[in-house]
Automatic annotation (TrEMBL):
It is an enzyme of class 1 (oxidoreductase). NAD(+) binds at G8, A9, R10, G11, R12, V13, D34, G74, T75, T76, A101, P102, N103, F104. One of its GO terms (biological process) is diaminopimelate biosynthetic process. The keyword Coiled coil does not apply. This is 4-hydroxy-tetrahydrodipicolinate reductase. PANTHER family: 4-HYDROXY-TETRAHYDRODIPICOLINATE REDUCTASE 1, CHLOROPLASTIC-RELATED (PTHR20836:SF0), DIHYDRODIPICOLINATE REDUCTASE (PTHR20836). GO terms for cellular component: cytosol. It is found in: Cytoplasm. Residues 108-241 form the Dihydrodipicolinate reductase C-terminal domain. Residues 2-104 form the Dihydrodipicolinate reductase N-terminal domain. Homotetramer.
Length: 245
């Protein structure tokens, strides 16, 4: 049995994760902690799942890694600086591993992968992410990561700069620029989590769209991460290696 702790246990995703861990026959939920609980309650857990908030996740990771608990992290807000800090903590705690995935939905991971594969064949790529209005951050972790891997694929293929004749615009009208890829964030009641990657070429457009219809979509990926994190050395970013992508 894998002893699992959950941080953010009363949150929108945390509730689903606790339910899934309790239903898994190879896992035991040993701690379900939320905002005002002491993180010391994680003592005894082998793996901790974090779905909290970008402002608190780094403190949680420092504690977990320092205590030899393997984190599986869904919380967003990771840039290269944060990832480097996590790598440093892991290096100081040999045998402890960490998985950080901006999206645990299998279809969402495939959407990102297909966008990365397609990017080199098109002149233009833009991303529109659409989420519920209670989301803390923008752009979403998924959109940010998609833009990064799309930009990387385009750079590797020697793609030219994307055409854009805009010289006059209101601030924000062209969205956020993530390594040259424009990302637009919609916050709308009724939505959960959605993303479109628009790829434009000569006379044709490919749209890759992903829709999260229920937060239960994240739990198979989280359980996969919990089962595999102990054998994935150091820091793993994204679920792709666990899906052989
Ligand atoms: N990787 C993925 O697949 C996914 C990632 N996410 C990300 O996960 C994060 C959480 O999303 P969501 O569940 O919607 O958010 P919620 O706000 O619904 O849940 C977060 C929970 O964490 C609690 N919390 C805040 N601080 C702490 C702390 N220090 N220790 C323990 N618990 C704490 C919050 O309490 P309180 O409300 O009182 O502040 C809340 O109950 C976001 O960053 C989101 O982007 C979301 C969906 C999928
Ligand atoms: O906050 C959310 O809801 C989600 N957050 C993640 C992100 O920022 O990409 C994953 C998914 O989009 C849902």
């Amino acid at each position: 049995m894998i002893k699992v702790g959950v941080l953010g246990a009363r949150g929108r995703v945390g509730v689903e994760v606790c339910r899934a861990v309790e239903a898994a026959t190879d896992m035991e939920l040993v701690a379900a902690l939320d905002k005002d609980d002491s993180i010391e309650g994680l003592a005894g857990a082998e793996v901790v799942v974090d779905f909290t908030h970008p402002d608190v996740v780094m403190g949680n990771l420092e504690w977990a890694i320092g205590h030899g608990v393997h984190p599986v992290v869904g919380t967003t807000g990771f840039d290269e600086g944060r990832l480097e800090t996590v790598r440093r903590w892991l290096a100081a705690s040999p045998g402890t591993n960490c998985l950080i995935a901006p999206n645990f939905g299998i279809a969402a991971v495939l959407m990102m992968h297909f966008a990365q594969r397609a990017a080199r064949y098109f002149e233009s790529v833009e991303i529109v992410e659409l989420h519920h209005p209670n989301k803390a951050d923008a752009p979403s972790g998924t959109a940010r990561r998609t833009a990064e891997i799309v930009a990387e694929a385009r750079a590797e293929a020697g793609a030219a700069r994307m055409p854009d004749a805009t010289t006059t615009a209101l601030d924000g009208a062209r969205g956020a620029d993530v390594e040259g890829v424009h990302v637009h964030a919609v916050r709308l009641s009724g939505l959960i989590a959605h993303q479109e990657v628009l790829l434009g070429g000569d006379g044709e457009i490919l749209t890759i769209r992903h829709d999260t219809m229920s937060r239960s979509a994240f739990t198979p990926g989280v359980l996969l991460g919990v089962r595999r994190v102990r054998e994935q050395p150091g820091l793993t970013v994204g679920l792709e290696p666990l899906l052989d992508l």
